[in-house]
Amino acid sequence: MTAPQAAVWQVLADFPNISVWNTGVKASHATSDATSGVGAKRHCDLAPVGTLEETIAEWDEGNRLVINIDSATKLPIERGVATFTLTEAATTIDYEYEPQGLVGKLLSPLLARQLGKGFAGFLVDLDAAANSSSEG
Fold first, then answer.
1. Global pTM?
2. Each residue of 17-66: pLDDT tens digit?
3. Residues near 38 by Cβ (< 8 Å), separated by ≥ 6?
4. Which helix (H) or strand (E) is 123 found in, with range?
5. What does the CA dihedral 120, 128, 5, 15 come to, rounded to 10 degrees?
6. How far apart are CA 19 and CA 13, in angstroms?
7. Checking phi first, is residue 29 left (phi over 0); if not, alpha (psi -120 to 50) or beta?
8. Which residues, 6 or more positions from 76, have their beta carbon under 8 angstroms from its beta carbon?
9. Element holding 115 (H helix, E strand)
10. Which residues contact 95 (CB under 8 A, 6 or more apart)?
11. Omega before 48 cis (within 30°)?
């Protein structure tokens, strides 16, 4: 990523509005009174199908964000965790997920490849949004 760390954080910290910049999310909105910090919740309608319910589990201002995927529909995922670590040198995403049922377990290798591609696209979108916000 080429965007400055502070600009990347600014985009990630606008938690309910991920659909504004992430091409993998058709629509998103807050589902809690809090829109940032630990405990903030959001709903995401994914492209092309599926939904996620997510909650911020950790919030280290400007440096680290951990998001729990509490539930998913139309995806073979029971739950998951995405950890964003920001430094001046890089922004990284680590993710873990629990497959849902037998189908999820059988599709796990395919799902892992698809999630890897999805997060690669996510980083491209995040970098573009952060660069745009740091220019404006």
1. 0.90
2. 999 999 999 999 999 999 999 999 999 999 989 999 999 999 999 999 99
3. 56, 57, 58, 59
4. helix 108-135
5. -80
6. 13
7. beta
8. 99, 100, 101, 103, 104, 107, 111
9. helix 108-135
10. 80, 81, 82, 83, 115, 119
11. yes
